[in-house]
Amino acid sequence: MTASLIDLHSHVLPGLDDGAATLAEALEMCAAVAADGVEILVATPHVRAADYPTTPEQMETALAELQAADPPVQVLPGGELDLEELDRPREELARFGLGGTTALLVETPYLGWPLDLAERMFRLQVQGFRPVLAHPERNPDVQERPELLEPIVDGGTLVQVTAASVEGRVGRRARGAARRLLELGLVHVLASDAHTPDVRAAGLTGAVNALGDDRLARWLTVDVPGAILAGSDVPPRPARARRGFFRR
Predict the structure, then answer these.
(1) Which of helix, strand or coil describes residue 130?
(2) CA 222 to CA 40: how far, in whole Å?
(3) Which residues pair with residue 105 across a beta bridge?
(4) Which of 52, 132, 53 is nearest to 97 (CA)?
(5) C-alpha distance from residue 61 to each of 76, 87, 90, 114, 238 (Å)
(6) pTM here?
(7) Distance CA 6, CA 59 (A)
(8) What is the pLDDT of residues 207-245, one digit of tens each?
(9) Where are the domains of the chain?
(10) Are 192 and 10 in contact (CB under 8 A)?
(11) For domain 5-230, is the CATH number 3.40.50.2020?
């Protein structure tokens, strides 16, 4: 696969959350991303009242600082929003849109499964947003019952899985859930969720290679992310490769 990759989920903005701590570290992450073949990196700091209550102004200021340092990859705005942050005013939510679009990256809880999750995603769509659900494969309930995502995806929400899950770097349960979600056609985006070199290192090619399906890999890392950033419809999912997913 030779197309330039798009990574819609990263914690590269310096000093905002548990990702890059300094501008120098952020630039190191950008260099690693560029070396891995990523052309566009969306910066998605946590927006979570309990520990990282990032404001739109803080995100925009940190983004401008990083962009001014001339990183070797195009860095775009965004945010990873906790479910409890979705009641913010619409104009405030819009400033966290991925790449300045109406797509919002929503963090899946790490524990428990909100019974009203489908309703919350629907309410975002009523406001004109396109919800993208981040890393559900790392949720224990989804690991037990991947089909929990079916009504949410049927309702129009897109799903992003983490490259490290596909590679198996965050455990067998997350890898198994990612594999099952892919088999069920419930995944639209593959992203790094990069924090630091020690916590989900930047890069997508390891997961692309692990998939064992070049057409699907391109769809997950180029075609769908590109459509999201363009504000256009998601292109049709390619037919499954005969050999199936995941190279050993």
Answers:
(1) strand
(2) 10
(3) 80, 132
(4) 132
(5) 12, 23, 20, 33, 39
(6) 0.95
(7) 20
(8) 999 999 999 999 999 999 999 999 999 999 998 765 555
(9) 5-230
(10) yes
(11) no
